[in-house]
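Good morning,

Attaching, inline, the backbone tokens for the sequence recovery test we're adding to the shared suite. The designed sequence is right after.
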């Protein structure tokens, strides 16, 4: 796999559904120019771990926005599957309304460019990327399908990156830099 941290984020242009499950739009990397972007991939709609991550990110969206960051999720499912998942009742496996868009990487081109595509299964690993306002990937974490990511850690890393300084292990906002 090629290195992605420290270089220009791979460009993308995908169809997406808004978080309320009502309308479709196109999203591209250029839409986030001048803002921090937390861009994460998940394997599939209508699964078990994915909704826990997506709804946790949505519940804390205001914390991301206060830091000048937007959030975008993507999977290989179609925009129609995303819409159906958002609109399906939670008690029936639905996602419910969220506060950021979900993009459709149905061609699998974007997950491949970001190095998270499991080619033989045709799905993406759980990859999360923090992209700075200039479009440079500053952080990447990719792991197995069965483990959810931490919103606390994502926020902590975003804040650490925004200091522009050297942050020691377990650094937290307000603590001294090296």
């Amino acid at each position: 796999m090629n290195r992605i941290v420290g270089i220009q984020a791979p460009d993308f242009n995908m169809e997406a559904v808004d978080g309320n499950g009502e309308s479709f739009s196109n999203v591209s990397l250029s839409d986030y120019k001048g803002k921090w972007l937390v861009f994460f991939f998940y394997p599939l709609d209508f699964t078990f771990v994915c909704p826990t991550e997506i709804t946790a990110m949505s519940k804390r969206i205001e914390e991301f926005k206060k830091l000048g960051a937007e959030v975008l999720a993507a999977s290989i499912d179609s925009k129609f599957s995303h819409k159906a998942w958002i609109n399906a009742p939670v008690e029936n496996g639905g996602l419910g309304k969220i506060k950021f868009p979900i993009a459709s990487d149905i061609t699998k081109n974007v997950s491949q460019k970001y190095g998270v595509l499991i080619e033989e299964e045709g799905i993406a690993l759980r990859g999360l990327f923090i992209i700075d306002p200039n479009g440079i990937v500053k952080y990447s974490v990719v792991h197995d399908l069965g483990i959810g990511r931490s919103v606390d850690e994502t926020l902590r890393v975003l804040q650490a990156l925004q200091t522009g300084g050297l942050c020691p292990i377990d650094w937290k906002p307000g603590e001294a830099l090296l």
